[in-house]
Amino acid sequence: QVQLVESGGGLVQPGGSLRLSCAASGSIFSINIRVMGWYRQAPGKQRELVAEITSGGRTNYADSVKGRFTISRDSAKKTVTLQMNSLKPEDTAVYYCNLQPWSGSDYWGQGTQVAVSS
User: Fold this and answer.
1) Mean pLDDT over residues 16-31, rounded?
2) Residue 55 and residue 113: Cα distance in Å, rounded?
3) DSSP characters over 37-104
4) CB 14 within 8 Å of CB 84
5) CB atoms < 10 A from the CB of 3, how many?
6) Could you give the CA distance from residue 8 to residue 95 in angstroms, rounded to a whole number?
7) How far apart are CA 24 and CA 55, in angstroms?
8) Whether the Cβ atoms of residue 10 and residue 94 lie closer than 8 Å to each other
9) Higher pLDDT, 30 or 55
10) Which of 19, 66, 69, 75 is the most core-located residue (most Cβ within 10 A)?
């Protein structure tokens, strides 16, 4: 069993920054990780990809966050971090950590709320 625990959400003013972290624990060493990433879901909208990073370090970002968000991972510690700068009200959502193994189903965190408001 693998657990993903997110931290770092909160309330921030437009233009501010937040840093989200996700730590994988449990039977993580039995899993070969292909991709780790972040998704978000705003009220009334579908869950969407924000950013992801492969085991080889390749990154992929949603167009809406390019140039503002940066994803990184520590493979040894099984953590993934999302640095969010220049936040906008439209970035308000619940952010979910995602882990995609090479085989088997994805794992999801419980979600952390990010609110951008003045």
Assistant:
1) 87
2) 26
3) EEEEE-TTS--EEEEEEETT--EEE-GGGTTTEEEEEETTTTEEEEEE-S--GGG-EEEEEEEEESSS
4) no
5) 13
6) 10
7) 14
8) no
9) 55
10) 69
CA distance linking residue 118 with residue 115, whole number of Å:
10
| Percentage, residues of the chain above pLDDT 90 | 81
Tokens of 32: 């070969």
Residue 61 is predicted with a pLDDT of 98
How far is the C-alpha of 75 from the C-alpha of 77, rounded, in Å?
A: 5
Distance CA 60, CA 3 (A): 23
State the residue for tokens 């994803």. 71
- For residue 24, which phi and psi values (nearest 5 degrees)? -95, 135
Can you spell out the DSSP letters for 93-109?
EEEEEEEEESSS--EE-
β partners of residue 26: 2
CA-based radius of gyration for the chain: 14
Choose among 117, 87, 106: nearest CA to 37. 106
Determine the pLDDT at residue 105: 92
